[in-house]
């Protein structure tokens, strides 16, 4: 179990670093909507999976998600729309799940905060609709 936690944490850090660099997040979508699942700890909590690249998402488009295709989300939209809305709906983000649907499940605002801190650390320029800067966004969601 400890090894799985370390692997999930490593995949999470890869996600944060890569999406900050590429400014893209990937998820799966079908004609019926976005891929989602239930949390490991609760059947009542929804988890929406996201990946740091298309190939990782595509590997998971099987079994219950057969017919789903990888779709890219611009990072600013992911942070401002997806993460905020997921937090409001108490949904979790599933990060860089593997083909066995194993990966980290984490609060969407924590994902946003980690990505924003990484963007700040690499001095990345990114434009938001609702925030004038990365620091303003960090301050807003930290409260």
Can you put this structure into words, describing what you see?
With 143 residues, the chain is an alpha+beta fold. It has a single domain (2-142), classed as 3-Layer(aba) Sandwich (Trna Endonuclease, Chain: A, domain 1), CATH 3.40.1350.90. Helices cover 45% and strands 21% of the residues. The chain contains five helices and seven strands; from the N terminus they run αββββαβαββαα. The chain has helices spanning 2-22, 54-59, 75-88, 108-121, 134-142; strands at residues 24-30, 33-34, 37-38, 46-50, 69-74, 92-95, 104-107. The protein has a four-stranded mixed sheet with strand order 3-4-6-7. A three-stranded antiparallel sheet has the order 2-1-5. A hairpin with a 2-residue loop joins β1 and β2. α1 packs across α4, α3 (75-88) packs antiparallel against α4 (108-121) and α4 (108-121) runs antiparallel to α5. The longest helix has 21 residues, at 2-22. It is globular. The model has no long low-confidence stretch (mean pLDDT 92).
